[in-house]
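Colleagues,

For the teaching module next term, I've prepared a clean inverse folding example: a structure given as tokens, and then the sequence designed for it. I'd like students to try predicting residues themselves before seeing the answer, so please don't circulate the second half yet.
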């Protein structure tokens, strides 16, 4: 049976005002699984299993690594299993959404060289530039025809951090998560 993800709503809010770590936010959240994303059956998902994954997040400006337990449910109607992922988690990635946005904000504030910034947060320079490209791509996808950005900026970050339930809404609209790198199939198509 295929395993899909059920995105759980979480509040992104302003990075500068968050004192809790991503792990504390996840611990305080209560998962809900009202309907199966595969078959649409209501009330048929029940707890099934769990798995662990590493989460690299930010707490008080410092990189933090935590081992998380991700809960899974199974649909009694179609038999599909689903991982319950909160908005701060990017599917198939180790970095939290807030960590990436925090690093992008530090990059834009020009507090040091790119090399120093990457060393501070223990990321590769290529990773930073991949996040910048991905932010531009997804920001323009979200903004569509309304207003396009030519490069990542503090104004663009502020805009996205203030959209209530952005990660959840983005997922509902496009079928993949904000700042999730989309994988291509063998045929070269994006699923």
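(Answer key — instructors only)
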């Amino acid at each position: 049976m295929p395993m899909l993800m059920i995105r759980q709503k979480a509040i992104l809010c302003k990075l500068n005002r968050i004192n809790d770590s991503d792990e504390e936010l996840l611990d305080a959240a209560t998962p809900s699984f009202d309907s199966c994303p595969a078959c649409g059956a209501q009330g048929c998902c029940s707890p099934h299993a769990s798995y662990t994954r590493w989460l690299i997040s930010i707490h008080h400006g410092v990189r933090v690594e935590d081992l998380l337990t991700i809960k899974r449910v199974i649909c009694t109607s179609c038999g599909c299993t689903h991982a319950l992922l909160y908005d701060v988690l990017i599917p198939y990635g180790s970095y939290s959404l807030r960590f990436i946005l925090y690093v992008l904000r530090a990059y834009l504030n020009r507090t040091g060289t790119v090399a120093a910034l990457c060393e501070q947060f223990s990321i590769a320079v290529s990773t930073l530039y991949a996040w910048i490209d991905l932010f531009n791509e997804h920001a323009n996808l979200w903004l569509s025809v309304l207003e396009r950005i030519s490069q990542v900026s503090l104004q663009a970050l502020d805009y996205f951090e203030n959209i209530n339930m952005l990660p959840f809404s983005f997922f509902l609209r496009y079928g993949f998560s904000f700042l999730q790198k989309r994988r291509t199939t063998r045929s070269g198509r994006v699923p």
